[in-house]
Amino acid sequence: MPSLGEWTMVELFFGSLTLYDAFMGVLTGVAGGAVLAAAYLMSRRGIAHWKARKLVHVTMATVIALTIVNYSNLSGPAFAAGVFLTVLFYAWAHKRSLISELLVAGSRENETKLNTFVSGFMGIVGFAVAFLVFFSEPGIFVAAILAVAWADGAGEIIGRTCGGRLFGIRIRNKTVEGTIGVFFFSTISVVFALVSFSTVNPVTVLPQIVAIAAIVTVTEAVSTRWLDNFLIPIVTSFAMWLLVFPTMPLFLPP
């Protein structure tokens, strides 16, 4: 496992699966299955669907952000995905309506199962863009994914639970409290990524971090339906490249 400041992204080839890769893959795959099970049980018990959705949203995106940089090569993530799918298909074999019920459990009010599927799929597309374009800087990828997990997640959680209580303002179903939450957790996401997965000292680029958080906040505010899951990782990664890593080459290293 790399030491602090020496992180490199997973190598883009399918090689041997190390013991560490296998351990992390099993842990990740089982954890993903456990999160889906928890969301399913929450829905079955009558808990609001948006809470189950946010549980999956925040947890799964965080796991992706914090594990990809640790694998030796693509065999690790592929193994983790295989473990997760094995758990999912095992459960599906015992309950054929499981996938449909999981999509329902993750759907907001007035949303269809298709909307929920598209939201998740476009989120993965956004993650892939951040991964491939900024492959040589793990800090950018981690910040981009955590912005979706923590900032976007906090915006809805704070907006739904505390929104309108302090300012009493709601624009396009967005609240001031939720928007402040997005800004605060965007800042935390970038700082955490820089401290943990890069050699950049956040103190030296504090104005840039604030600017990135403001850009993410505006992106979340103007996004509708599934657009936030797609746009936030892309906007965050490009903003970090322009403001924090302007000399870094784009796309894959030679």
Please, could you describe this protein's structure?
It contains nine helices and two strands; from the N terminus they run ααααααββααα. It is an all-alpha fold. A two-stranded antiparallel ribbon has the order 1-2. α5 (about 115-135) packs parallel to α9 and α8 (about 205-220) runs antiparallel to α9. It starts with 18 loop residues before the first helix and ends in an 11-residue tail after the last helix.
Secondary-structure topology with pairs:
Blueprint: H1 19-44, H2 49-67, H3 75-94, H4 98-105, H5 113-133, H6 138-162, E1 170-171, E2 174-175, H7 176-197, H8 206-222, H9 227-243
Antiparallel strand pairs: 1-2
Total helical segments: 9
Output the radius of gyration.
18 Å
Major sheet characteristics: 2 strands, antiparallel
- Regions with pLDDT < 50 over 5+ consecutive residues? 1-6
Structural class, judged by helices and strands?
mainly alpha
Number of domains: 2
Brief overview:
This protein has 254 residues and is an all-alpha fold. The protein has 9 helices and 2 strands.
Task: List key phrases describing it.
flat, two-stranded antiparallel sheet, 9 helices, disordered N terminus, 2 domains, 254 residues, mainly alpha
